[in-house]
Amino acid sequence: MTVDDTGSGADADGRVNPPPASAPFDQGDPQAADSGEDPLTLRLETLILGAERRYTPFQAARSAGVSMELASRFWRAMGFADIGQAKALTEADVLALRRLAGLVEAGLLSEAMAVQVARSTGQTTARLAEWQIDSFLEGLTEPPEPGMTRTEVTYPLIELLLPELEEFLVYVWRRQLAAATGRVVQAGDDDEMVDRRLAVAFADLVGFTRLTRRMEEEELGELVEAFETTAADLVAARGGRLIKTLGDEVLYAADDAGTAAEIALRLIETMAHDETMPELRVGMAFGTVTTRMGDVFGTTVNLASRLTSIAPRDAVLVDSAFAEELIRTGEAPASEAEAAEAAAAAEKEGEEPPTYRFALQPMWQRPVRGLGVVEPWLLTRRDGAS
Length: 386
Prior knowledge:
Helix content is 50%, strand content 17%. The protein is α+β, with helices and mostly antiparallel strands.
């Protein structure tokens, strides 16, 4: 084990050991004096990272056995600013560089893929960390007693929360990885692992720009959080995948059109029962989608976005491919006349008539910017279906 004078270091397995909780970081701390930073900030950083600053970027790269160029690419991909040659890196940074480089050397990842792994992980966890500080830790660090400062509460609170949050993060990541791996394994062929046929939907709050002009910032933040929470819960509960949230808009995907349609209608029905929420509109398309770093791209995604922009209030518009998929899978009739004929034929044979969850109504064809002329279909819930 390598140990510095604070007691931190890495054991034989490469795990970084944090310094003792009682390690002094007062105004006399030379690290704080050298950097000119607040001593509590450095103390919290050491607690969270599990090690003190001891390396410049060049020293960290050399210790990890990677080139400075590759180390810089990894560092920037993770979302961190260039720090020159300041002594700001720890044993954990060296270990991370060594692991990524090791995956490349072993042939498990290409260098480009390793950079993508660093970027996707950095972007995802950056948002998570910001959310936790803004919405979670900030509220908990309110002084519990008069006269106490927030700084007197922050360190012991994070000391208690850190291991629990870390364990929970790993648990959720493993669960999500298992689910994503299962979807890939079930793909029909290798091409489907990247370019897949999916239902893609945008749900957009109507009149959000006007709301921003007349609502207080705190009220607006609460509205956006309530919308995103409701959407995320409904998408997950019905078997879809939330791709991203954009304040007044959410993007989700589903493996089949029926699931995406059910989510869209549930979203509108749920929002309609909440008087504090604006009206909602949804646009959906079905087709080949390219997936990269958890996001989706392609003409199908662009079409869903355009349909959202022309959808009526509290309504769902779908493209013709989406409508055809619902008809093909028996989720919706091609027309009400066809549904009536099928019901009459079933009654004549003494059989149960077909049941449809959704109804489709063709709308006027119209040009859509960048995509030519499209034929939207209005999607509704069929009478009696729930």
